[in-house]
Design brief:
Elements lengths: L1 H49 L18 H8 L15 E3 L2 H8 L2 E5 L2 E7 L7 E8 L4 H4 L7 E5 L2 E2 L16 E5 L6 E3 L2 E5 L3 E8 L5 E7 L12 H15 L4 E5 L6 E2 H11 L9 E6 L2 H11 L3 H5 E3 L3 E5 L5 E6 L9 E6 L6 H13 L3 E5 L7 E3 L2 E2 L9 E3 L1 E6 L15 E2 L20 H9 L17 E2 L13 E2 L4 H10 L2
Parallel strand pairs: 11-12, 12-18, 13-26, 18-19, 19-24
Antiparallel strand pairs: 1-22, 2-9, 3-4, 3-25, 4-5, 5-6, 5-7, 7-8, 10-11, 14-15, 14-23, 16-17, 20-23, 21-22
Helix pairs in contact: 1-2, 5-6, 6-9
């Protein structure tokens, strides 16, 4: 009887422990569901008010608000159609709004130090290789022997394939050993902490034997500063354009092939420097179309200021807005567009968003002065702004939903499928001694093509560097949120958000 009694007691204790554990787990799950519901209510309310395609959203009563916020957010988006190019492939959400805001300014807590484009070595196969496009200045990668055009096939001894390529260089490792096809041995790269990339990669002037000059700028992201409020990158660009203007340089080559987008005001500042006959009151750069609900609200709240909110006119100066929308004039934007006879824009499959906004906004005023060279652009004619709750301990999420569609002064916005270049040239041509020429080298394929068209340099004969069977499957920068954003950073947006919260 003792044995049976002990066994029975053990069984009872085990059941009590199991029930206690289940109660504890259920308590955790209940709290998680409640937290999710709290955040998801916030997500739905804001999307229903600001989202450009709000009429395509599911009815609130059909949605499960206890699921994770990221999954809930995805269920609200207008599905993208690859055939018609309609729908949403750009809205995104992040668990930390601080990380979201940092990513929009090009700030990285751990930067690998170079950009690359992954290719399937042969379509239908799983082997992948990385083509290094450029090395970021001021990183540990710049101190290594890594070069533009290096082809990486192994990371830390592991062969790259279509399953592991996107995480291969993001393992939170202290260093990465790279092996490849066109360099001997291994190259070790250490990530760079708290890195902020200057989007102006370089600027140069090229001269022919008769003294004719062409200006060149490599610009890799539309951001005004490294989130410090200084507008130092916009000011640096203005000085470069002033230099070209003072030297009467009539040919400009603007390299946007690796520029996925960024802030709308940066795009407007650049376009204002390049447009001929600039007028800040009558010449329209672009205008924004919002959903009917937000449009009605903005008209009511902004009154006579609504016109300047939706319409972007070319500007005379770099303008700094405070949190109340008050404008302080900073540096003067030179009228370089009056000197430009040809604007060659180097583009590629990752030229998107704010880059395309500049092209579309300048076309009505420059026409055939603009010559696109490279590959078809990405295709993004819609914009977003950041939504988050700064002082809510239960909700640290940030989201970047699409809120508007952009048009130029001729009411054109038909570039959702991208711009087709006037001259189609593959970025990865012209290998010399196993490497691509560095950006800025007059023999580099796209730059050389533009210089030849401008009559500055003779065109270099190039050869294909990759088989036609190879297929691009992404971009290193696209692994980070916000790469293809057109960010509306007019501070009147924050005024409208704050006013809405007071109702």
């Amino acid at each position: 009887m003792k044995v049976k009694y002990v066994n029975l007691l053990s069984l009872v204790l085990l059941l009590v422990m199991l029930v206690a554990c289940e109660d504890k787990d259920e308590g955790k799950n209940k709290k998680q569901r409640a937290d999710n519901e709290y955040v998801n209510n916030w997500i739905y309310q804001n999307m229903d008010f600001y989202y450009y395609w709000r009429d395509k959203m599911s009815s609130e009563r059909t949605l499960d608000k206890t699921i994770s916020p990221s999954d809930f957010f995805d269920k609200l988006l207008f599905p993208y159609n690859e055939t018609t190019y309609e729908g949403d492939r750009f809205s995104w959400i992040q668990a930390s709004y601080v990380d979201l805001l940092n990513s929009l300014s090009g700030v990285s807590s751990k930067e690998i130090g170079f950009d690359f484009i992954p290719y399937l070595r042969q379509e239908g196969k799983s082997d992948v290789m990385f083509y290094v496009t450029y090395i970021k200045k001021g990183t540990n990668a710049e101190k290594s022997n890594l070069k533009r055009g290096h082809v990486i096939t192994k990371v830390n001894g592991v062969e790259l394939n279509d399953k592991n390529w996107s995480s291969a260089l993001y393992q939170n490792a202290a260093e990465y050993k790279l092996e490849g096809l066109n360099f001997s041995g291994a190259i070790t790269v250490q990530p760079t902490g708290n890195y902020s990339e200057n989007p102006i990669y370089l600027d140069s002037i090229y001269t022919d034997n008769k003294g004719k000059e062409a200006g060149y700028i490599v610009y890799n992201q539309f951001t005004m500063d490294n989130a410090d409020g200084s507008y130092k990158y916009d000011k640096q660009l203005a000085k470069i354009f002033s230099k070209f203007n003072d030297r009467n340089i009539t040919t400009l080559i603007l390299d946007l092939r690796y520029n996925g987008g960024g802030y709308e005001t940066c795009a407007l500042n650049i376009a204002s420097a390049l447009v001929p006959g600039r007028n800040s009151t009558s010449k329209l750069f672009a205008y924004k179309e919002f959903n009917p609900v937000f449009t009605s609200y903005a008209k009511q709240e902004l009154g006579r200021n609504y016109n300047s909110f939706v319409n972007s006119y070319f500007k005379e100066n770099i303008e700094v807005q405070d949190s109340k929308g008050n404008i302080t004039v900073s540096d003067f934007i030179p009228k370089y567009g009056d000197k430009i006879e040809k604007l060659y824009i180097l583009v590629g499959r990752n030229t998107a968003s704010a880059s395309e906004l500049v092209i579309n906004g300048l076309y009505p005023y420059m026409g055939d002065k603009i010559v696109l060279i490279g590959e078809r652009t990405y295709g993004k004619n819609v914009g977003s702004f950041s939504l988050y709750e700064e002082n809510d301990s239960r909700n640290r999420w940030g989201m970047q939903p699409i809120v508007s569609k952009t048009y130029n002064s001729e009411n054109k916005s038909e570039y959702a499928m991208g711009f087709t270049p006037d001259f189609i040239v593959d970025d990865f041509t012209g290998i010399e001694n196993g490497l691509l020429y560095s950006l800025g080298d007059e023999n580099e394929t796209l730059l050389n093509f533009a210089l030849a068209k401008a009559g500055i340099k003779s065109q270099k004969k190039t050869v294909k560097t990759k088989p036609a069977t190879m297929k691009s499957i992404g971009w290193s920068r696209a692994l980070k949120s916000g790469t293809y954003d057109l960010i509306i950073n007019d501070n009147r947006i924050q005024q409208l958000i704050d006013s809405k919260l007071q109702y």
